[in-house]
Amino acid sequence: MMQLKTLMPPPGMTLFPTLKPPNKTQYFHQILVLSLTFIAYATFHASRKPPSIVKSVLGPEIKSLSSGTNFTLTSESANGTTGWAPFNGTDGPHRLGELDLAFLLAYSAGMFVSGHIGDSVDLRIFLTVGMVGSGVFVMIFGFGYFFDVHVFGFFMAVQILCGIFQSVGWPCVVAVVGNWFGKDKRGLIMGVWASHTSVGNIIGSLVASSVLGMGWGWSFVFPGMIIMVIAILVYMFLVPSPGHIGLELIGNEEVEMHIEGVALVESEKIEVEEEGAETEGSVAIGFLEAWSLPGVAPFAFCLFFSKLVAYTFLYWLPFYIRHTAVAGVHLSHKTAGILSTVFDVGGVLGGILAGFISDTIEARAVTSALFLVLSIPALLFYRIYGSVSMFLNIMLMLISGLLVNGPYSLITTAVATDLGTQSLLKGNSRALATVTAIIDGTGSVGAAVGPLLAGYISTRGWNSVFFMLILSISIAGLLLIRVVKNEIEEKLKEGKWFRFSFMSH
């Protein structure tokens, strides 16, 4: 018996035949895939930023106490005359944290499901659906301003549905990039590529902050429109794997696919005939089987705590800046939102640097642990000295962003891809999205917990919040001890580090 499997090229390749091989090389399509997935996931993150930008507008007006460690609500906010009901009362920070929790728990739960689905469907179509759905619900949240909605349940429901659609993005883009690139220099390539997270945060912050004066609803409408426009490009031109356009990835070479002597390049529908039942490589890996793969569990739980810290900054940094005097001056809502992008600029640098270092020493866990250890004093210095002057605030925020986002970026990209394509899978090409979803899905649970805890703990003072962040970073580092030990022993046994040290001199 023969089994028929059909791989459909994107519509853009039909409209523009010159984009297909042999007119365009594998290298061209790799750049196209990197660019489209970069832009796509940047818009996902841009559409997540509005809640953090509008927090200080929706919530109660807060004045810091002279000690700088606690704050109190003003009499106006306590009476509900500022902010936006139902977030402007004394429980406003709690409710804002609960909104973050609703989004991120839905995102985390959806991640596990989306990853498994992503191993079984056309990633281009699945990603497009996720982008369009995300854009729709981000805009609907903003409509709450225009239609004067003050029902907490409305905002909660919208965030849950938005989180489900957002969960589609990450497993899809990582799987697509993994399909197109081998392991050589993967850390550096993905370190550069993974800066889409921080770039998206920067774009989202700038867009949402720039229109905040028009009304907070516009801070949601514009990012929602942007992601829907990019979804059209993804649908038209994203090629999920080389096989969709008749290429087979072998190292850094490109060849036409031939199955039983039949060339497939020129066909718009590439039909691949395989003998017998489904091969091992065509069956999506089981959820529990993926968890049992070496390295998946420790990196997944490490990401839980790393992402807890990263997302606390993502959702609460503009609020923190707004209500913490810098050189004795409280910044405006707009200025605080724009200034918070410095943390994400550091994130771009951190992702690239972590990827480069991990490729150089060929040790992902060691690199991640190094960044985690260094981020502890960085956060302490930012909390203690960030309010002294604007210069110190910017520099310490930049360094904190670099060190916090370095391991987060590395684990969610190069590490996840390495684990999803390791030799123990015996050629199973459909395990990558599942492994990626497990790692980032577990991390997303931490991402849900962090902002919620910050909403509650911040009412007791920001020192308590930073203590929570430092404790989380410490636990993340401890979870990697065994993996770090194994990496070091392996490299010393192979003698690679000795050779590197000798060559460097």
Automatic annotation (TrEMBL):
GO terms for cellular component: endoplasmic reticulum membrane. Pfam families: MFS_1. It is found in: Membrane. The chain crosses the membrane at residues 125-147, 153-181, 188-212, 218-238, 296-317, 337-358, 365-385, 391-411, 431-453, 465-484. It is a multi-pass membrane protein. Its main location: membrane. GO terms for molecular function: transmembrane transporter activity. Keywords: Membrane, Sugar transport, Transmembrane, Transmembrane helix, Transport. It comes from the Eukaryota. Residues 35-489 form the Major facilitator superfamily (MFS) profile domain. GO terms for biological process: phosphate ion homeostasis. Belongs to the major facilitator superfamily. Phosphate:H(+) symporter (TC 2.A.1.9) family. Belongs to the major facilitator superfamily. Organophosphate:Pi antiporter (OPA) (TC 2.A.1.4) family. PANTHER family: MAJOR FACILITATOR SUPERFAMILY TRANSPORTER 16, ISOFORM B, SUGAR PHOSPHATE EXCHANGER 3. This is Transporter.
